[in-house]
Amino acid sequence: MNKELALYALDVARSLGASYADARLIKTVSETVETRDLYVVYAADNESIGLGIRVLVRGGWGFATARHLTKLGVVAAVTKAVEAAKASSRLLNGRVKLAKEAAHQEIWQSPFSIDPFKISTNDKVSLLLECEKLMRKTRGVKQTSGLLTFTREKKLFVSTDGSDITQTFLTSGCGIDAQAGVDEHFVRSWPNSFGGQYESAGWEMVQRWDLLGNAQRVAEESVMVSKARQCPEMVTDVILGASQLALQIHESTGHPTELDRVFGEEENYAGASFLTPDNLGKLKYGSKIVNLTANATVPNALGTFAYDDDGVPGQRVELVKNGLFVGYLTSRETAHELGLDRSGGMMRATGPGFTPLVRMTNVSLEPGDAGSLQDLIADTKKGILLDTNYSWSIDDRRHNFQFGTEIGWLIKNGKIVEPVRNPSYWGITTNFWNSCDAICGPSEHVYWGIPTCAKGQPCQAIGTGHGAAPARFKNTKVGVAKPAEDKPKGAAHSKPHSGHHHAKVARHHRHCAGGSK
Amino acid sequence: MITEAKCKKIIDLAIAHAGNRVTDMQVTVFEQDQATSRFANNEMTQHVDTCTTTVTITVNAKGRTATFATDSTSTKAIKRAVDKAIETAAVLPHDSTTLRVLKPSNLTEDATPKFSRYDPRIAALGPEDRLKRVKSIVEVARRGRFSAAGIFATYLNSYAIGNSAGLFRFDQQTNVECSITMLSASSSGWQKGYGCNLDAVDPVALAEGAASRARKSRNPVYVRPGDYTVILEPSAVLDLICFLYDDFTGTEHWYETSSFYKKIGKSVLGKNITITDDANHELQTGFFFDDEGMNRKTVTIVEDGKLKTPVKSRRSVKYLGGSPTGHGAAPSSAEGEFPMNIVVAGGDSSLEEMIASTQRGILLTRVWYVRDVDPNTKLLTGMTRDGTFLIENGKVTRGIKNLRFNQSVIDMLKNVVEIGQPVLAAGEETFPAVVPPMKIENFRFSSRTKA
């Protein structure tokens, strides 16, 4: 990492009239192994290094990347950024101003126990193939797959405010799935769908999620759900499994509390928010037991960091307190615009090639007092447990949502009585969160990682974390997808997402369609 | 901008460095220069100018395939990438199904593109040129007392493929993109344009189109969810039919996971639906060769509602028969193939005629956050957005509040009663494609929202 080059970029920016500039020099290495039906279908490493420079000139933003990591390349990039900023400054309602922030100097490393890059590729492949072999022993399993992916990112941030911060992030992801059925196919995944679980951790997270130990159960559940009946349409009490609740939080709490979105900056693509400033401190967002926070300081969660890309320390910020909407996700620019003294430190970019945006950190539902998942099920007279995300959609103001899960378990008199296929549920954000009457305790609380949160133009995909324990929501509409009997004859079955469609689109077209947005 | 000669040099270096340590290898070089002027609230909010280069090296060492990608084009980095890929391949299990790379002698058609998708005017645009266009959009907004948000962006893409059998392909293209949302206190309107040459996108016309939709949808009213006749503008059609693309691939048929598995030769959509994949269509965008170096052939996927054939890669034809169609993903990829240049045949109705023939229905500008609910029946859910209108007695009468739909796209394409002229449409769920507006019966809305 050539710090001199980054500092040189700041000098050039100053000399060209920038009132503020920051430079991010980022080196990334990654490794991915993917198996499908006992074959290695993808074994790939990636290495990249880049410099992104952001400048404020006459109150307008400009951003550029260096084509070459040389002094000449830096001068060219800074010149482009300054020219862009000058053009921006000629179409402003007012000059951009930033909330104050002290200069910081720090070197930080995300915590891990076992370096996954020191585990041999052979061991990684062997683990996935062993899982696949075990899953395929279950009669009725038709397809199996597995994924392991690891990234190390070393990021230097320097700014004209005097900050000099080096952070190294280690991220690991792991997952397996099994698909069952003859003419119809149903998937079960572990630890989560769409590639699995992602954490800011090392190989120890792969060990902890015990892919091999869960392979047989996953396979058996895929067969079980393939034989289950369609989830009935009904209004009932819903218990969301923790990973599904994580995505519910992401879509209906995380995104609408992004202050740049609230201010209309995402109107054209990701949309706006119903959580306008007049609601701050007034809106009853959820029931009294609902406490939602954004905490960038949680060890090992995917949205964890020491400093954001504004050079602001990671913080814990309350978003919803005892059901009341009390806070936003902010940057230095949006915090100043709202009249806050300081940014909450939520400004991040996807690598050196993008300018930072307000992003979720670890937006989480604080644990409650409903004990374990088993305790919550036992406390539910009639309802359904919905587990592992399968489908997700929410409107551009974040009111009207619909989710589907891989499996549903009908609950009667405190006991699980039957699995159902194709479960879905629908709601309006504030109605839904106000219907929350029980949240499981700390023992069930997990920080789930969503690796592909999409936002911005050009679109950026970034990792976010979401702590959640299973929770219950009263009188929720379930089975909202067209019931089986309404479907065309001979087509009343479902099959799993290949998980490939959106990834294919994104890879082929080099943008981030798909993912969560 | 990277040159063809530079790409060739990188590829030759990699192949020479690997030598006889590999059975085969393929190298791709992709570079994108992207400049985006982003605006909201009638002011510029971002102005970025970036460049990314990726060299991807895929080696087959005795049936063991591994990939290493780097963003450096230095000799040292390329050699290291080759060495690392070989190192990784060595520890992988042997795969007897591994394909050899494509030989140049297997390219049976003329490899020269029929026309260029490179417009030097786009490549030459600078920040002041983009500012000028954004200002013209904001001017339209201010005149109509709207707030404008959106982007004006340009792309310069260079792509080269070479392999150890001597194949080398190279192409460069430009793209221009302009997406505009106009907002009033109670409504919004949206338009998006995309193309390979500068004339394909007229920011002022798009701005006026978005403003018109925002104006007409002011003070929207609730309508009851249910089954409606709908008229979908091309972008809305695109963002729904793209969920069938996977089902049009050979690999999904091979894996028996296509919704159309075992239905080749059978009627699967309405008789008025014909879908081709045609990289040579004059309105299309994208490179003329696939990620294995094959020419992208024109494939009729659905003709008069009957499924003719999926697109096929060199791998999937081993299991399905037939010939590869030039839609393959890179070697070693789990992705198989993909239709990248969809063209849906048009009809003879104009949008105005569709509206005039509708007693009661809904006109949709844009759909949003569309996701599979039941991938076998292709039941999709999503929302309307930025210009949703009620049609009564052959006229657009007023804007309506947004609705959530739960609708099978297969059923939708069985219920098309009128089709307009296709255009290069751009949406949010996929890349642009050539699709027409459509009038559809019995489109199912399941709930409504506040906005």
Shape of chain B: globular
| Average pLDDT of chain A | 93
Mean pLDDT of chain B: 95
Q: Report Rg of chain A.
A: 23 Å
Helix percentage range of chain B? 10-25%
- Unreliable stretches of chain A (pLDDT < 50, length at least 5) are 483-513
Which band does the percent of strand residues of chain A land in?
A: 35-45%
* Quaternary structure classification: heterodimer
Number of helices of chain A: 11
Total number of helices of chain B: 10
- Strand elements of chain B, count: 19
Strand content of chain B: 35-45%
Question: In terms of structural class, how would the helical and strand content of chain B be classed?
Answer: alpha+beta
Largest interface comes to: A-B, 98 and 109 residues
The largest β sheet of chain B comes out as:
6 strands, antiparallel
- Structural class assignment of chain A: alpha+beta
> How helix-rich are the residues of chain A, as a percent range?
10-25%
Shape of chain A: globular
Compute the gyration radius of chain B: what is it? 24 Å
